[in-house]
Amino acid sequence: MYRKQDLQYLQDIFDRSSNDIAVLYGKTSSGLSEILSDFIKDKECLYYRASAVNDSLQRQLFAGELHEQTRSPIFPTDDYDKLINTYLNEKTDRKKLIVFDDFDFLVKDNKTFVNFLAGLLFGHSNPGICMILLVCANIRWVENDMVKTLGRKSSEISGVIKLNEYTPTEFYECFPGMPLAEAMGIYALIGGKCHYYDKITADTTMKSFINMRLERWADIDNDPYLYLPKEIREPSLYNTILVNIAAGNGKLNDLHTATGMDRGKLSVYIKTLIEHGIVSKVVSANIGKGTDTQKGMYRIEDRMIRFYYRLVFPHLSSLRLLGPERFYRKFIEHGIVPFMEEVYPLYCMEHVKWLRDNNRLTFKVASVEEYHDKNGYIEFVVIAAGGSVIACSCRYAPPHMSYAVIDKIKATVRKDKILCDNIWLFSASGFDQKLSMYGSVTPGINLIDGEAQRLH
Quick one: pLDDT band at residue 289, thresholds 50, 70, 90? Predict the structure, then answer.
């Protein structure tokens, strides 16, 4: 599953009367393979998936694939430009497509590779005979290293398409018949990674989906590398870190205290997890003048992996003994609500963006950003164009949000020295009577219940 507009953008580049180089990147779980398969369908295409080998062997592998797919005469020791010219010079009335998948493996060991491509397309070939698509699942490399690696030749790229994860609204649009509570619960588990979506129907419940995953985890041997890259050493230490991050120890000091590991070593291990896209460091919105407002928090990126390390990994023995159904009742049923609470602010943030995009607000929004209040009363902030701030607090589970939250938010605003003019409260379960009365007569207090913020 993927966004149709991303496929259309690729097709628009292909339909140009020029030769073009484009980049398509994103996590495999965001539909990278699916969109690529659909794009190359019915086109005259040469596809090569690069491997992590040296340049000499890479060229031989490419030559072998070129021969296999086209039956053209090839010379494995030739340079890439000669090999590709063999394909381009074949007579045809159709525009050709050349796809280099995992192309980061090509250019890491051959930094002039894109020079070959640019020279072929823009120096020696007739306009409109070919499009070259560079595909990569390594997001960090594309966004941090690609331009440095390609140098000036990066300007030859005609278009860059990133496959982003689905938002809560987009997920709900995929399953419009699903009850909203179930949609929010399932999204809390899998997030925007659409490779899970083909296992879901409008009748799927959060519990049934969890039990399906529990059955899988129960059948797997206790593999210490289940969600770790196989090339890293000391999986026991990485798993220890991930269990503690999943449990809420997101700051370096908290991890140091919980694990007993040296801070320097912890930083190295966390850096490795970040480089592999397993963990991210999230920095709070830069709005306060307090001492704690800019300290970063570590969190597990993939929500399914976060769920596994928080609610399943600590009880693997019980999962084997109890089976999915009894395990769910004992360990998941009560623990899942706080887990779902974490994703509810995403819905609330998206609701604010929807209000902004549909001109439902009386002011201009500069940004909507997460905020890490260590006491947990402010989940995100809305920053107006003039710099004033709206502090936003969210509550998903019953009971009603109570009036007491107002004083706690105001205390956080004072402590963090936030230039805050308004407070917005989001509650899927509504508000108690005192808070409702207060919100109706107090300027700057905005109460938004679950019905008012239904996914649009």
Answer: low
The answer to whether the CB of 383 falls within 8 A of the CB of 361 is: no
For 111-199, list the strands marked E by DSSP: 130-136, 157-163
In the block, residue with structure tokens 């609500």:
337
Placement of tokens 């823009």 in the chain:
122
Backbone angles phi, psi at 420, to 5 degrees: -110, 120
DSSP state of 293: T
* d(C-alpha 394, C-alpha 442), whole Å: 19
For the beta carbon of residue 388, count every other beta carbon within 10 angstroms. Answer: 16
Let me know: does 423 contact 391? Beta carbons within 8 Å.
yes
DSSP line for 138-162: -HHHHHHTHHHHHGGGGGGEEEEEE
Question: What's the whole-model pTM score?
Answer: 0.82
CATH number of 344-449: 3.40.1350.10
CATH-assigned architecture of domain 4-163:
3-Layer(aba) Sandwich (3.40)
What average pLDDT does range 254-268 have in this prediction?
94
Residues 6+ apart with CB under 8 A from 84: 98, 116, 117, 120
Enter the tokens of residue 150: 């390609």
Give dist(CA 43, CA 60) in Å, integer: 25
Least confident of 82-91, 133-142, 294-303: 82-91
d(CA 266, CA 262): 6
CATH numeric code, 205-341? 1.10.10.10
